[in-house]
Amino acid sequence: MAYIRHMGEFTRPFQIKPFCAVMAPGLSAMESARQVLEDQWGPIDLESDCFDVEDFTDYYRVDMPANLIKRFFSFQILQSVETMNREAKFWTNSLEADHLNDEGQRLVNLDPGYLTLDKLVLYTTKNFSHRLYLREGLFAEITLTYDRHRGQYQPHEYTYPDYATAAALDFFLAMRQRFAAHLKLQERQS
After folding, report:
1. How far, in Å, CA of 141 to CA of 129, rounded?
2. Could you tell me the sign of the dihedral formed by the alpha carbons of 76, 77, 79, 83, in that order?
3. Which of 48, 120, 151, 180: disulfide with 72, CB 3.0–4.6 Å?
4. What does pLDDT average to over the chain?
5. Per-residue pLDDT tens for 24-56?
């Protein structure tokens, strides 16, 4: 039996809403990171409350100072998924390497990602079974999936605990609402 091969077009790069999770040892370092992020990706339109990293993990005790806080930032200007895949994590890792204390510890940890109407994607340099390789040691994982029936994001069994809290899920839902409104506005203008 002959197989019929359907030649479809590849999906063009699409717009996404970028975000970055920032860990720092205090509000001053957090504010400095915020300024650098806004210089790179434009104005921040949403930010979460700060929370204590140690409530979720002790993973960073060795290579970062104590008393880490974390906050999620959402950016107003949409980006191309292709541009984010090519640049985001490489730029943030370079920035982390440039900000070390006298003991060689990172003073900031930046985890960029993006949101679409159906998922939240997080970039990482760590391989695992649920992560897809992008390029040059960069991986991506779908951290949250939007459930249209429930009207909320759903974590997966591998989702980091701080991304699965009610506060984080509410933040990403508000981010999604802004993204949807932005897309509708663009559609009306075109």
Report:
1. 10
2. negative
3. 48
4. 92
5. 999 999 999 999 999 999 999 999 999 999 999
